[in-house]
Amino acid sequence: MKKILAGPLTREAFAEFGDVLDMEGDNHYPINGGRAERYHDLARVEAEGPNARVLISIVKSEPFMFPLRLEMVERHPFGSQAFMPLAPRPFVVVVCHDGENGPGTPHAFVTEPGQGVSYPRNTWHGVLTPIDEPQEFLVVDRGGDGSNLEEYFFDEPWEIHLPGMTL
């Protein structure tokens, strides 16, 4: 089985796959008479296709055991997807570049507590992957007509390891 070691999720390392959602950087300012701080324009929301609209949902996800056997990734041709954890716990993010016959080699990242991600449309990615315990996520994605899900099953699974695990 091919193996991958998950690295830390940083804006620089993830930039070619999408946006990191967090409170870093200088894109914030006070609102509500100075009683709140707005972290503004963290990601672009895409909703293409017939009767497209932006949806906001909450997803409860069960934890995964590691090393993780990665057999499938998915992408959404009509809209972006953003995932923000509702508790300050890390999770694993898996993404792939588009290859000639489907997704290329997976890249794996471990979020810092409180970080989320936003994938542009057509970006191959793994499913929500909490570590150790169930986790809830705020999800922003596309609703509307047409199939907005494409799944790809690898001929040979990949094995994702967390930092500190032996490859």
Brief synopsis:
Strand 9 (91-99) and strand 10 (102-110) form a beta hairpin. The protein is mainly beta.
Q: Over all CA atoms, what is the radius of gyration?
A: 16 Å
Number of helices: 1
What is the average per-residue confidence, as pLDDT, rounded to a whole number? 94
Largest sheet: 5 strands, mixed
Topology:
Elements: E1 2-5, E2 7-8, H1 11-14, E3 19-21, E4 28-31, E5 36-39, E6 53-61, E7 68-75, E8 81-85, E9 91-99, E10 102-110, E11 116-119, E12 124-125, E13 129-130, E14 135-143, E15 150-161
Parallel strand pairs: 1-15, 2-10
Antiparallel strand pairs: 3-11, 4-5, 6-14, 7-15, 8-11, 8-14, 9-10, 9-12, 9-13
Structural commentary:
A hairpin with a 4-residue loop joins strand 4 and strand 5 (36-39). The protein has 167 residues and is mainly beta. It contains one helix and 15 strands; from the N terminus they run ββαβββββββββββββ.
